[in-house]
């Protein structure tokens, strides 16, 4: 299981649990917004990873990825994703190699 698969599964669990809480309950909307924000971070990492891989093996007609060094961006996203995963470090599927 990759860190992205792990995080998406945990966020799915969190979202299901939050949606079981009655609408209007204190903190529910904010917690759902946090799940949405975390999903965007995971997506950002996925996109940065894909851009970095394209820079290794670009298609013959593709331009270089915009925004400078894709590896620096990937590292920043990777750290953010690792911090998100650390919240779930007690989960049995958490991989300790994801720890900082």
Fill in the keyword field for this structure.
3 helices; mainly alpha; elongated; DUF6221
Question: Mean pLDDT, nearest integer?
Answer: 87
Query: What are the segments in which pLDDT stays under 50 over at least 5 consecutive residues?
Result: none
Structural class: mainly alpha
Give, in order, the helices and strands.
Answer: HHH
Q: Measure the end-to-end span.
A: 18 Å
What percent of residues adopt helix (DSSP H or I)? Answer: 55-70%
Biggest sheet architecture: none
What proportion of the residues form beta strands (DSSP E)? under 5%
Shape: elongated
Calculate Rg over CA atoms: 16 Å
The number of strands is 0
Number of helices: 3
Describe this protein's structure.
Pfam families: DUF6221 (PF19730). The chain is mostly helical and 100 residues long. The chain has a domain of 67 residues. It has three helices and no strands. The longest helix is centred in the middle third of the chain and has 29 residues. The two termini are 18 Å apart. The relative contact order is 0.17.
Secondary structure: elements and pairs:
Elements: H1 3-19, H2 28-56, H3 70-86
Helix pairs in contact: 1-2, 1-3, 2-3
Concise account of the structure shown:
The protein has helices at residues 3-19, 28-56, 70-86. It has 100 residues and is an all-alpha fold.
């Amino acid at each position: 299981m990759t860190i992205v698969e792990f995080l998406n599964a945990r966020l799915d669990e969190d979202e299901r649990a939050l949606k079981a809480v009655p609408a209007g309950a204190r903190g529910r909307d904010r917690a759902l917004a946090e799940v949405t924000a975390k999903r965007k971070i995971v997506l950002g990492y996925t996109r940065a990873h894909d851009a970095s891989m394209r820079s290794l093996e670009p298609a013959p007609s593709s331009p270089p990825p915009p925004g400078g060094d894709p590896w620096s961006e990937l590292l920043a996203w990777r750290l953010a994703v690792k911090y998100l995963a650390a919240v779930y470090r007690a989960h049995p599927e958490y991989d300790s190699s994801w720890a900082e």
